[in-house]
Design a protein that fits this description.
17% helix, alpha+beta, extended
Length: 427
């Protein structure tokens, strides 16, 4: 190769190296700008996340403050929202049903709605009527007699006549009804659908085996039953709580029996109840037992609460159980509120001479024929007032509304409070 050619190639190589170096120098600033942009975006995202977290913490703080104020809110008066004259008798009995109440006596039963209006009335002649409610259904028996009536919000759906005297009844939220009847040798339980048609389920218990039915309760779905029995064991009277499953799971179990408990030290279990389809309770004079049926074929006792003093009253709904026992002296009463697992949510003492207690409208209500006290489930007193001279039934339909029946009228009271947390929200 000639010298001139070599020289020319050297020049080309220099030019190529120069172009490459120049290109690299141009690319570096571009890469640096991208990195700066990514960093800026990351900072922007971090700021947005921080602002979001701060706002979330602020919102939680505001909610907790408002909730605290709501819990502390005490009503200082009430107004009568409406009042309606009704016909009542001194022998009327009442139980909460749907949005108001069932009122019954020996001559019949009436469903009264939240406007004080009679939705329906069913006449009958029963010597000792007893009513039970579960969801949209109610059942009425003549205790010691031979008649059963089944109802929903539209009226009577079924009537049953028996050959043996009825002593216990329970109903499910879907209208399945079970009655316990007596004969000379055994205690029998029969099941009926909402129309009063006898179902293909029947149980028979002997005093020397499972025992005599003291109480029983169907779950809302109608597939489970909890019952308390008294039985003889070598001549000694004992009692037990028994669970049965009438669904598909219990088909292979003898007498549909899925569990039983006998650890009650001779104390009779006088009341059993399904709070919902999973949790149930049994009540004795000195204790309350909470059961879980998360495993429907293996019920478990999740909590037993013992009371040193006598239990005077019990009341419950699907979420809570209330127990009223003797307080710090003979005048005061201790009110304890538990959730469906047996966890204590609130307690308080009162010297109020109540005659009835219930859960309603998210409140704990104690009342007599002339006065009422209203608490939240944490045990904070919300309102106390005189409500007349002849109150027969009283409940809350909301946190700030009372519905009541006295000897002449049905009334709704709206509770009033000044400078509440609602005012802060513009309500």
């Amino acid at each position: 190769m000639k010298d001139t050619d070599r020289e020319r190639e050297k020049q080309k190589s220099k030019l190529r190296r120069g172009m490459k170096t120049s290109s690299e120098k141009k690319e570096k600033p571009e890469k640096s700008e991208i990195e700066k942009l990514d960093a800026k975006l990351r900072r922007h995202r971090a700021v947005r996340i921080l602002i979001f977290l701060l706002l979330a913490v602020l919102a939680v703080g505001v909610f907790l403050v408002l909730e605290r104020d709501r819990r502390r809110e005490v009503y200082d008066g009430h107004l009568t929202s409406w009042e309606k004259e009704i016909t009542t008798t001194a022998k009327d009995q009442y139980t909460a049903y749907r949005d108001y109440v069932l009122r019954w006596n020996r001559d019949g039963i009436t469903y009264v709605n939240n406007k004080g209006e009679a939705v329906w009335t069913q006449s009958f002649e029963l010597a000792n009527p007893v009513a039970v409610v579960n969801g949209n259904y109610a059942a009425v028996i003549d205790r010691g007699g031979y008649r059963l009536y089944i109802f929903n919000e539209n009226g009577c759906t079924g009537k049953v006549s028996t050959l043996l005297p009825i002593h216990k009844v329970t109903v499910s939220a879907g209208g399945v009804t079970a009655i316990a009847v007596e004969d000379d040798l055994a205690d029998k339980v029969f099941f009926y659908d909402m129309s009063g048609r006898q179902m293909g389920i029947e149980m028979k218990t002997l005093l020397t085996e499972d025992g005599y039915t003291l109480d029983m309760s169907l779950s809302p779905d109608g597939q489970q039953m909890v019952a308390a029995y008294v039985y003889l064991d070598q001549g000694v009277m004992k009692n037990q709580v028994v669970f049965r499953n009438f669904g598909d799971e219990g088909q292979e179990m003898i007498k549909r029996l899925v569990g039983g408990f006998k650890e009650y030290d001779g104390q009779l279990i006088g009341r059993t109840v399904f709070l919902d389809d999973v949790y149930a309770c049994a009540f004795a004079e000195d204790r309350v037992c909470f059961y879980s049926l998360k495993n429907r074929l293996s019920p478990q006792m999740v909590k037993q609460i013992d009371f040193k003093e006598e239990i005077y009253s019990i009341f419950y709904n699907p979420q809570y159980v209330g127990i009223i026992s003797e307080g710090s002296d003979s005048v005061k009463r201790q009110v304890s509120i538990y959730d469906h697992t047996g966890k204590l949510t609130g307690e308080f003492e009162t010297s109020f001479a109540y005659t009835e207690a219930n859960f309603s409208g998210g409140r704990v209500v104690l009342y007599s024929s002339t006065h009422c006290q209203i608490y939240n489930v944490q045990g904070d007193l919300k309102y106390e007032t005189s409500v007349g001279s002849d109150v027969r039934w009283l409940a809350c339909t909301a946190e700030d509304r009372i519905l009541m029946i006295d000897g002449k009228t049905a009334r709704e009271l709206t509770l009033e409070a000044a400078n509440t947390w609602r005012d802060l929200l513009g309500h």
